[in-house]
Specification:
Length: 165
């Protein structure tokens, strides 16, 4: 991976982390204030929705930090090592947690007439999409496992060849 690519990806990651911190610091309190002005049906779900939003932002931040670490490993040439799996597992877990959070949001908003049933159905579709992304990352983890195994095998063969020579 070239230096320009790494720099561009890190710039995007910094912008996303800054944006997520802005959401936590500014937008969540504004959202909480909007619930105070809402009707009684929405006011009853204020706390669960706020908690779900904050935890969702945290899940996104975890993914961004893990991607940063993986990019660092790629830049150093150490991504094909067993240490990379730790970050990939955390990314998969964060996506699964995000899917559960969106499902919880749909479950919180489903009862009553405050939110249209179509919105709840759309949230359930988002759950499926997030789980699909988690499965894609799982497949990429399997590819990483194959690459690590081949790298280890190549190192073993190089060592044997060095002994022969």
């Amino acid at each position: 991976m070239g230096k320009l690519t790494v720099l561009a990806l890190r710039a995007v990651l910094v912008m996303l982390l800054t944006g997520s911190a802005f959401v936590q610091a500014v937008m969540v309190p504004l959202l909480a204030g909007d619930f105070d002005d809402a009707d009684a049906a929405l006011a009853s779900v204020r706390t669960p929705v706020i908690v779900i939003v904050v935890l969702g932002v945290v899940a996104a931040q975890v993914v961004l930090v893990c991607v940063w670490r993986l990019v660092t490993m790629v830049r150093r040439g150490t991504v094909f090592s067993l240490g990379a799996f730790r970050y990939v597992y955390v990314v998969i877990g964060a996506f699964v947690a995000a899917a559960f959070l969106v499902f919880a949001l749909a479950a919180v908003l489903a009862p009553g007439e405050a939110v249209a049933p179509g919105i709840v159905l759309l949230l359930c579709g988002v759950v499926v999409a997030i789980l699909g992304v988690a499965l894609v990352v799982l497949v990429l983890r399997m590819l990483l496992a194959q690459a690590v195994a081949r790298d280890i095998e190549a190192a073993r063969m190089r060592a044997e060849l060095a002994e022969v020579i």
